[in-house]
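Page 37, continued from 36.
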């Protein structure tokens, strides 16, 4: 009887024992070192666990059940659950990049299953770099991605993917955790898990009218199942100016200025005895040793049902000009809850509070005369001599010391989404997400009264003639809302594999701004105290001077989308996308537009005839074609023009203005369209150590949205013109290890780009934008002016040369070329004198690991473009400081054949010409880092999982040929790489640590 009872109890308890057994084990690499973060899945029990820092795991599963163990960088492994402590070893994967899952917009896909060109960057690449904008750290990292950084704190880089495709906006679309956005300011680099750069039509067409400029997809961090971790990282850096422009000192300035006065027959300057300084104004206004500090903490907890992560960061960065300062606190909350195996919900919230910098500039420091000291003996600011620029620019220290400090600019931003995802009928997944973005900016400014010392008259006078204080105030509010409803079907039938997506997305954007200003009273100025910096500043403000303005607009889009990813046996791959966009900003006749793409790929190495070859480990041939859209324009509701004042008439004693349309609109306006195609190969060889990718791309933008002058010389808004961008992208990497202790990798990329304007409007029609021109047959934004052949050496030289009709000139002035050969110099002799778009851009990196040390170095550069120098040219009628090279000016026959004489009697030498053109090619040592990761045994007693310390140097040196601060400058679509004096790109040296508990 007793035996029967035991048998009976065993039969009852055995299923419970089999289903509830606690399985323990350790996952390690082939050397026995534990692998943290590996995912262990019990196939039948549907339970999961992650390995801890030492590679240990505990999971609830049945004995004999299959456990699947996966870890990025290692081949997946299936093994049976056994009693006791399991020991599992994973092998390093040789094709990790191909197996990784990338975000392609409204979903994910294996990189191996794509027909286009996407690039993934790990969040680690941007987390430990001293840049508040994460895309700034990608300069030189991605083929086809142009990033031009500015040294200004908080300023967005100039970003272009595969060239300038429009005369409107050039930057790409950002998608942050599913929300489509036009900037990435609210994302802390430390919160980023991955960045995916989408460039090809097969991945961009699904974004419709917002996809033509390329897309950058950012995924923020999520908690890992089965782990509770706390991570803290912090860094502090020091910024310094390098490559300062070389300017004349006081001695050289006096020499050159005296020479000018003699050349023009003017009396000598009689106040040198009152101006005895020798001031380098760049040094005076610079914040030497500006600091940048960053601290971040993240708390992560993951269970079988819930993954919660909270990140909080703080950034304090000083500018290169005194009193510039950015303070920014960010947070990121990411929570995902599995209600059951088929239904999950989640929420994400990003936000920040920032005190924005009051930006200064180096413009006045580049041109202010050096003979003036900053202060007189009584500590009063010197006024620049009226005869030497004083009427046009003030003492450069005044804005820096007095006006920057009287500006208050704050920004508050909250970006979030909530979603629900349901899996049903085994192969279907429905996801609904609601997303929002609220951005509030507000600020106040105060213009004080400042005394300056005018040495010519020995008087203290108001700075800039200002006798009234002033207060200005603004408040702007921008809202973005988005709803996505997406249905995904994923199924395999034998060798056929399908992933189909259909969806609907609706978005709404609204912007409001109101601003105003008020002057103080003559005898009752507004106090220099923030308590009084408001428009209704009773009793100080003069209400009769109060003015206000406002701006507001909104727009909505509704879109249907579909995508199919198909492969047969992993060998033959097909992608198709479709999107139909409707916009409130277009007239009903063209309110809806369709966009689409097709792509195909062939993984050659999966064919039987490739089985015995020893050359390629992987080879794929790919191509895609599609029609993309571009809705970016400087005008909202372009088919409904605003009014502007026209002629006026008199009614009684009143003059009454008439109002007319600001332009005439084409009734058939539609969004710009981009026909894009590409073809290329991906390959891996030498046991997957060498990987290579080559792609040819071509993008043709048609029906550009532009304002032109019609046959009546009236502004006309229409679709006109086309721009072509084509080129090659190459990227390669080599990774290997010399010993188990020493590993290294080398990677590089190169992009060629040929940009050409195919048409503008009517034949011969050109668009002028400063020194730049956009016309058919030339690159967009080309520099336009006269070709300098040298300097006239004598009157005989003038008589033997083609006569000029573009101004008065004499010996020592620039000699312009008769380009059209008509025997005289006229405006028709202007030609393309420079191309701001490089022939190619490139970047290369070296990374190595020796035991616990790691070292990385990055280079980046461009070749074949020009810069237009728009400073230091004597391009105004005022007398400013000289560039140092002017000491080599023409002073008589044979003394110079490039630097003209010192003469301001005419503007002949100030015309746009090749004299202003400088070589824009450069090579920059972009980043160098040395780090050390402590051995686990060294820190285990402190309950620390991981500790890394590092030193980093950014922009260490740039090999360049231009005379300004930096050899690259952003700008608009039709005027870029124009050097207006700019802002230095600083050398940043920093130290940091990353600590995980």
């Amino acid at each position: 009887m007793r035996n029967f009872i035991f048998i009976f109890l065993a039969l009852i308890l055995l299923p419970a024992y089999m289903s509830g057994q606690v399985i323990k084990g350790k996952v390690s690499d082939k050397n026995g070192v534990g692998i943290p973060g590996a995912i262990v899945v019990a196939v039948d029990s549907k339970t999961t666990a992650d390995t801890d820092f030492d590679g240990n795991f505990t999971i609830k599963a049945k004995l004999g059940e299959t456990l699947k163990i996966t870890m990025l960088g290692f081949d997946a492994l299936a093994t049976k659950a056994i009693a006791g402590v399991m020991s599992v070893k994973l092998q390093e994967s040789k094709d990790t990049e191909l197996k990784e899952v990338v975000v392609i917009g409204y979903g994910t896909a294996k990189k191996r299953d794509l027909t286009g060109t996407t690039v993934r960057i790990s969040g680690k690449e941007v987390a430990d770099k001293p840049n508040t904008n994460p895309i700034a750290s990608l300069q030189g990292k991605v083929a086809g991605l142009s990033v031009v950084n500015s040294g200004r704190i908080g300023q967005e880089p100039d970003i272009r993917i595969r060239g300038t495709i429009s005369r409107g906006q050039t930057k790409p679309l950002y998608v942050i955790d599913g929300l489509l956005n036009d900037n990435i300011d609210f994302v802390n680099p430390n919160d980023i898990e991955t960045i995916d750069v989408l460039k090809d039509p097969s991945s961009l067409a699904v974004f419709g009218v917002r996809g033509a400029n390329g897309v950058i997809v950012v995924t923020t961090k999520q908690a890992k199942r089965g782990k509770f971790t706390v991570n803290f990282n912090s860094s502090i850096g020091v910024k310094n100016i390098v490559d300062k422009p070389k300017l004349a000192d006081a001695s050289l300035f006096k020499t050159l200025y005296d020479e000018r006065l003699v050349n023009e027959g003017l009396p000598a300057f009689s106040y040198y005895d009152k101006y005895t300084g020798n001031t380098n104004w760049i040094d005076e206004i610079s914040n030497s040793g500006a600091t940048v500090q960053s601290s971040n903490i993240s708390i992560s907890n993951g269970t079988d049902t819930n993954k919660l992560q909270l990140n909080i960061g703080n950034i304090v960065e000083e500018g290169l000009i005194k009193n510039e300062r950015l303070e920014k606190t960010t947070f990121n909350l990411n929570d995902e809850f599995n209600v059951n195996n088929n239904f999950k919900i989640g929420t994400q919230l990003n936000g920040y509070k920032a005190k924005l910098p009051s930006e200064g500039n180096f413009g006045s420091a580049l041109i202010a005369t050096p003979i003036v000291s900053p202060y007189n003996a009584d500590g009063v600011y010197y006024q620049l001599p009226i005869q030497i620029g004083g009427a046009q620019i003030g003492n450069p220290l005044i804005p820096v010391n007095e006006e920057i400090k009287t500006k208050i600019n704050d920004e508050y931003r909250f970006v979030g989404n909530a979603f629900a995802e349901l899996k049903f009928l085994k192969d279907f997944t429905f996801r609904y997400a609601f997303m929002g973005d609220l951005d509030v900016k507000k600020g106040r400014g105060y213009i004080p009264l400042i005394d300056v010392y005018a040495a010519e008259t020995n008087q203290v006078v108001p700075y800039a003639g200002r006798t009234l204080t002033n207060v200005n105030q603004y408040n702007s509010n921008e809202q973005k809302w988005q709803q996505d409803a997406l249905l995904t079907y994923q199924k395999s039938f034998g060798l056929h594999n399908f992933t189909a997506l259909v969806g609907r997305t609706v978005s709404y954007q609204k912007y409001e701004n109101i601003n105003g200003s008020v002057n103080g009273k003559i005898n009752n100025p507004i106090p220099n105290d923030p308590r009084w910096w408001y428009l209704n500043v009773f009793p100080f403000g003069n209400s009769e001077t109060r003015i206000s303005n406002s701006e507001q607009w909104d727009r909505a889009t509704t879109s249907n989308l579909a995508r199919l990813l198909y492969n047969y046996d992993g060998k033959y791959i097909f992608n198709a996308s479709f999107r139909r966009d409707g916009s409130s900003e277009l007239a009903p006749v063209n309110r809806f537009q369709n966009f689409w793409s097709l792509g195909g790929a062939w993984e050659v190495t999966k064919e039987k005839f490739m089985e015995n070859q020893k050359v390629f480990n992987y080879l794929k041939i790919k191509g895609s074609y599609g029609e993309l859209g571009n809705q970016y324009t400087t005008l909202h509701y372009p088919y409904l023009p605003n009014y502007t004042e026209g002629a006026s008439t008199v009614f009684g004693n009143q003059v009454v203005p008439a109002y007319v349309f600001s332009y005439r609109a084409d009734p058939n306006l539609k969004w710009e369209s981009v026909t894009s195609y590409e073809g290329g190969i991906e390959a891996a060889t030498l046991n997957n150590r060498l990987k290579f990718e080559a792609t040819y791309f071509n993008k043709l933008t048609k029906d550009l949205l532009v304002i032109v002058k019609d046959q009546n010389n009236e502004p006309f808004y229409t679709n006109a013109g086309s721009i072509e961008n084509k080129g090659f992208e190459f990227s390669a990497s080599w990774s290997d290890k010399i010993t188990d202790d020493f590993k290294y990798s080398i990677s590089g990329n190169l992009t060629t780009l040929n940009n050409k304007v195919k048409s503008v409007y009517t034949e011969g029609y050109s668009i002028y934008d400063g020194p730049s021109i956009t016309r058919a047959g030339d690159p967009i934004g080309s520099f336009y002016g006269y070709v300098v052949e040298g300097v006239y050496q004598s009157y005989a030289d003038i008589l033997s040369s083609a006569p000029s009709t573009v101004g008065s000139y004499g010996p020592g002035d620039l000699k312009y070329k008769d380009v059209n050969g008509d025997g005289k110099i006229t405006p028709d002799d202007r030609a393309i004198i420079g191309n701001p778009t490089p022939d190619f851009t490139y970047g290369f990196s070296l990374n190595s690991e020796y035991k616990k040390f790691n070292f990385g170095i990055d280079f980046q550069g461009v070749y074949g473009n020009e810069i237009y120098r728009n400073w230091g040219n004597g391009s105004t009628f005022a007398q400013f400081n000289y560039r140092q090279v002017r000491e080599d000016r023409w002073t008589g026959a044979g003394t110079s054949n490039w630097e003209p004489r010192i003469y301001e009697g005419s503007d002949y030498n100030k015309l746009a010409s090749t004299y202003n053109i400088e070589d824009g090619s450069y090579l920059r040592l972009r980043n160098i880092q040395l780090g050390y990761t402590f051995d686990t045994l060294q820190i285990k007693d402190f309950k620390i999982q991981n500790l890394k310390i590092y030193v980093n140097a950014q922009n260490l040196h740039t090999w360049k040929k231009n005379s300004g601060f930096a050899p690259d400058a952003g700008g608009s679509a039709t005027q870029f790489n124009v050097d207006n004096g700019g802002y230095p790109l600083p050398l940043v040296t920093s130290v940091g640590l990353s600590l995980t508990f």
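The chain is about 5% helix and 50% strand. Flag for discussion at group meeting. The longest helix spans residues 2-20.
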